[in-house]
Amino acid sequence: MNQTRTFLLFAWLMVAALLWMEWNKERPVPAGAAVAPSAQPAAAMPAVPAAQVAGASNAAAPVVASAVPATVLTLKNDVLALRLDGRGVIGAQLLQYPQARQPGSPAVVLFDPAPARFFAARSGWVALDGGAEPAFRPETGAREAQLADGADAVSVRFVATGGNGLQLRRSYSLARGSYALQVRDELVNSGAAPWSGMVYRQLLRNPPAAKGGFTNPEAFSLSGAAWYSPEDKYEKRKYPDFVEDGPLDQQVTGGWVALSQHYFLTAWVPQKDQGALYSLGVEGGLHRIEARGPQVSLAPGQRFTSDATLWVGPKLAEQLDATAPGLGLALDYGMFTVLSKPIHWLLTQLHKLTANWGWAIVLLVVLIKLALYPLSAAQYKSMAKMRKFQPRIEQLKERYGDDKQKFQMAMMELYKKEKINPAGGCLPILVQMPVFLALYYVLLEAVELRQAPWIMGWVGDLTAQDPFFILPILNGAIMWATQKMTPMVGMDPMQKKMMQTMPLIMAVMFAFFPAGLVLYWVTNGALGMLQQWWNTKRYAEEPAKA
């Protein structure tokens, strides 16, 4: 019993330490940091034209803005509204995701042309000889394309003509219910001389200030770049580390590049059979991840086509997995990915039954408890056997007084004689910890829980604090009741005092946690208390005589 309680306390401290280390990984982005972009082979990498963001200094200029005023079109399906200028996406609203729960709240904005929040996706073609990049214009006079009733998709087209005879037609297409923008470039060399060049696809952002806070889920989510290659799989880098961790400069075929934030993702997915050079850079505080390539050479009259997908939306596991290999890894569960992905899938299936994410969490904890019941039963059986011999242990403690070495030797001899495994109550807990931590990260990352209510009038948002602190108080009460069911025999006064204050400490700490996480702990604690009560009755034995 004494060892089990000590281990439990140690386990809590270890979990807290893990979360604390994760939180401390987030460092604020230095404001206005001017760092040169990573080196690129000059012969193979032509310069991309640069110009200013309106209202910003030259230091904050994106590297791909056109010097020619662009015509902006609006492309809209049932979930996404985009503003396009031919060379890329300069505005994006997620129509199904309001910024707040209040009625009339505006939609979440990802791409934004405002200098202080600049965020854009760019793509263009540059000649290897340094010729001017062709300027885009709409193919028709229409300035808006919206998904029609009954239609499966909506699209717009831009055209561009270079002075060297290069003709480029670009189409943007959005399917119904999709956050994946399909981009197709069709090139034809209409000139009299060969043309050589390459395509670039970039994501550029002036990052928001990093948010900290031990109880703030956003502090644990990746804010920075991520990329994927079939060889090295998923990799990531936070904004402050773009330059500090060295240049990327990685040649990849069949991967993707992305900028990630809590709940939402933007990602370029180049055509899977066309290679590109992935790179990171910072110019005047503007952070960039880029896929540049393939390089093409077109003889007069020759044609070339390049496709790409631009994901602009929430981190929805099934849709991300269907869009590109490895894109679902953008739901970053860290070391717990192997466990977290199936737990997230199960939580989604339970929501289909309950139509409520709060009750889905409750059912998920019930299923996990049932799956781990054999381990829990072994734990309580071991604790019951330890309880039986507590009088003998107390007698040994009195006999040897302050001689702890002799006391430990006598106690181990008793364990050996009575075939007691003192670790029997600890090992099952150790096995369960990764499962519970994996679930913790699912609740932090799942966009489905964002602004999701549980019981209206009480918990209206599972990702916000319990407004009435009922769940934290319940959690403290459950911990206190569980302790009362477990007599603190054999503990020294300091350990006993620490264990007695744990319910209050946890109640205060959980008062600042998102309600969905506290609901998980309350459900887990309540079921654990019932398990302990049942198994204590089941395995109860008469105390051994001292």
Please give the radius of gyration in angstroms.
Answer: 30 Å
Structural class: alpha+beta
Q: Strand portion, in percent?
A: 25-35%
Terminal-residue CA separation: 17 Å
Total beta-strand segments: 19
The number of distinct helices, counting runs of at least 4 residues, comes to 11
The portion of residues assigned to helices is: 25-40%
Order of helices and strands: HEEEEEEEEEEEEEEEEEEEHHHHHHHHHH
Shape: elongated
Low-pLDDT stretches are: 1-11, 16-44, 50-69
Average per-residue pLDDT, rounded, comes to: 82
Largest sheet: 10 strands, mixed
Question: Outline of this structure?
Answer:
This protein has eleven helices and 19 strands.
Description:
The chain has helices spanning 2-24, 317-323, 337-354, 357-371, 373-388, 390-400, 404-418, 427-445, 470-484, 493-510, 515-538; strands at 73-76, 80-84, 88-98, 107-109, 119-127, 136-138, 144-146, 153-161, 166-175, 180-189, 195-205, 224-229, 233-238, 250-252, 256-260, 264-270, 276-283, 286-298, 303-314. With 546 residues, it is an alpha+beta fold. Helix 5 crosses helix 11 (515-538), helix 6 packs antiparallel against helix 7 and helix 9 runs parallel beside helix 11. The longest helix is centred in the last third of the chain and has 24 residues, at 515-538. The two termini are 17 Å apart. Mean pLDDT is 82; it is low at 1-11, 16-44 and 50-69.
